[in-house]
Amino acid sequence: AQSVAQPEDQVNVAEGNPLTVKCTYSVSGNPYLFWYVQYPNRGLQFLLKYITGDNLVKGSYGFEAEFNKSQTSFHLKKPSALVSDSALYFCAVRDTGFQKLVFGTGTRLLVSP
Amino acid sequence: GAVVSQHPSWVICKSGTSVKIECRSLDFQATTMFWYRQFPKQSLMLMATSNEGSKATYEQGVEKDKFLINHASLTLSTLTVTSAHPEDSSFYICSARKGQLSYEQYFGPGTRLTVT
Questions:
Q1: Is the Cβ of A35 closer than 8 Å to some Cβ of chain B?
Q2: How far apart, in whole angstroms, are the C-alpha atoms of residue A105 and residue A3?
Q3: Partner residue facing B104 (CB), from A41, A49, A90
Q4: Most distant CA pair in chain A: distance in Å?
Q5: Are the beta carbons of A105 and B95 separated by less than 8 Å?
Q6: Residues of chain B with C-beta less than 8 angstroms from the C-beta of A100
Q7: Which of B24, B41, B92, B116 has the most C-beta neighbours closer than 10 Å?
């Protein structure tokens, strides 16, 4: 069965510094990988996805993610963090044979001024 | 765009009553909708997948008689929590997919249910 792991419950970074939120996956076949962000008491907002093609995927709000097949990772990155980036981030995977998304446990990002 | 709405955004009900949550795709037709449940500080747990015009597919451990899902049109799915109990209190989120070949799900803003 497909799964994703987000090893960090929380990531703290100072505003203006680069940020990385980690995600590793396990799936049979080609992975379809996603990052979503959730603000308090809100649904999830789509940030970016990897289906195929370039390993570096650019998404919304200046975020990008790097797909690394050998390390089975899909880390979310941003060159310069903003306080407004503080939120809960979810990595998700969808196997090609299934409709549903499987989410990681989430990583809370806290950007300090 | 692809906007999904949920109604109500929050609801308080008494134990033993039923409550209905609506999920609508506002600017696209959703052949498939998903219902998730999220406990505080936890990830989303898929409850069921519903395809328009057919019965929902429930995940293991989810009581289909308690969580009734109806997907009667391409823009509306409803989740009814029957005979609600305090342990049903949670944040319920729906998502919608545009087509069978679509990779993306568009999420609603969520509904906070509190059962007293």
A1: no
A2: 10
A3: A49
A4: 44
A5: no
A6: 34, 46, 49
A7: B92
pLDDT per position as a tens digit, B41-62: 778 899 999 988 888 999 999 9
CA–CA distance, A68 with A14 (Å, rounded to integer): 26
Report the amino acid identity of residue A66: E
For CA atoms A98, A100, A102, A107, give the dihedral sign. Answer: positive
Extract the runs of DSSP E, i.e. beta strands, from B40-89. Answer: 44-51, 57-58, 67-73, 76-81
Using one digit for the tens of pLDDT, what is the confidence trace for A9-22? 999 999 999 999 99
Strand partners, A17: none
B91 three-class SS: strand
Structure tokens at A101: 């998304």
How far B17 CA sits from the closest chain A CA (Å)?
A: 24
Q: Residues A28-39, buried b or exposed e (16+ Cβ, 10 A)?
A: eeebbbbbbbbe
CA distances from A107 to A4, A24, A40, A69, B81 (A): 12, 13, 13, 22, 29
State which residues of chain A have pLDDT below 50: none
